[in-house]
Design brief:
Blueprint (H helix, E strand, L loop, with lengths): L1 H31 L15 H8 L11 H18 L3 H28 L5 E2 L7 E3 L2 E2 H15 L9 E2 L2 E2 H20 L5 E2 L7 H20 L3 H22 L6
Antiparallel strand pairs: 1-6, 2-3, 4-5
């Protein structure tokens, strides 16, 4: 038992060190960029007015345009192409990340309904259609293929280690860091809004993007039965919550 515990801790240390190292980099960047006009590292209560406007325009069609159809067509083409090439593992990675993403978006919308402001908000002016308070149609379609695209980085050998970390976990953390860094720029625009001062790039990295990519990359190699169960539970729960909460006006 002690040997198993020791082995577990030995495997746990490298990814934890990697995560902490990236968090330190993000923290130092946040100190250096406090007065930046283009990058935002933490939420700001002064942006609540922008979030309040967005709160009243969920699923409003005033800004609808035909890019909606084109983007959807591209995503469908990507999926069908991968299916034709029998890249089923990539499709599973895509659906795993996308499903977890929807659970997060639903949770974010519930937070908005309960407290007045979501952890993250998209502006109605920046999208052809706002699905929920934190996700536009364009963002949703991006997340629909993010797991598939990033899974193409994965080595064929699922047991290979990079810097002492299993490559699936290594790339999950690395991709989470990339998305978190990019979100610093998005939060500096009026299209993407953080209002809570304790919410920002570090919690986004740790609590949001790491789970997204862990779901995608761990399901990529999982046994078929596990893949089916995971996708069934995640997508079943997301669908059930949407069916219940949207008519009730909660999200």
């Amino acid at each position: 038992m002690n040997n198993q515990k020791s082995a577990f801790l030995k495997h746990l240390v490298p990814p934890v060190v990697m995560v902490l190292g990236i968090c330190l980099i993000l923290f130092l960047l946040s100190l250096l960029g406090q007065n930046s006009e283009f990058f935002v590292f933490w939420g700001d209560a002064s942006r609540e007015n922008l979030a309040a406007i967005a709160n009243g325009k969920i699923r409003n069609t005033d800004n609808f345009d035909w890019t909606f159809i084109f983007i959807f067509t591209v995503v469908v083409y990507i999926y069908f192409t991968e299916i034709k090439q029998k890249n089923y593992k990539g499709i599973v990675a895509a659906l795993a990340l996308y499903g977890v993403h929807w659970l997060y978006e639903i949770t974010n919308a519930i937070i908005q309904s309960a407290s007045g402001f979501a952890l993250w908000t998209v502006s109605a002016e920046s999208t052809s259609f706002m699905i929920l308070i934190g996700v536009s149609w364009e963002l949703s379609m991006m997340f629909a293929v993010a797991g598939l695209i990033m899974s193409k980085l994965l080595p064929n050998d699922k047991n290979m280690k990079i810097l002492g970390i299993n490559n699936r976990i290594f790339f999950a953390i690395l991709n989470a860091a990339f998305f978190s860094f990019f979100e610093i720029f998005l939060a500096g625009t009026e299209a993407f809004i953080w209002t809570y001062p304790w919410w920002g790039t570090i919690p986004v990295f740790v609590s949001t993007y790491i789970p997204f990519f862990l779901a995608a990359f761990l399901m990529y190699d999982a046994p078929l039965k596990t893949q089916k169960r995971f996708l069934g539970v995640v997508w079943g729960l997301a669908a059930l919550l949407m069916i219940i909460l949207i008519p009730l006006g909660i999200i």
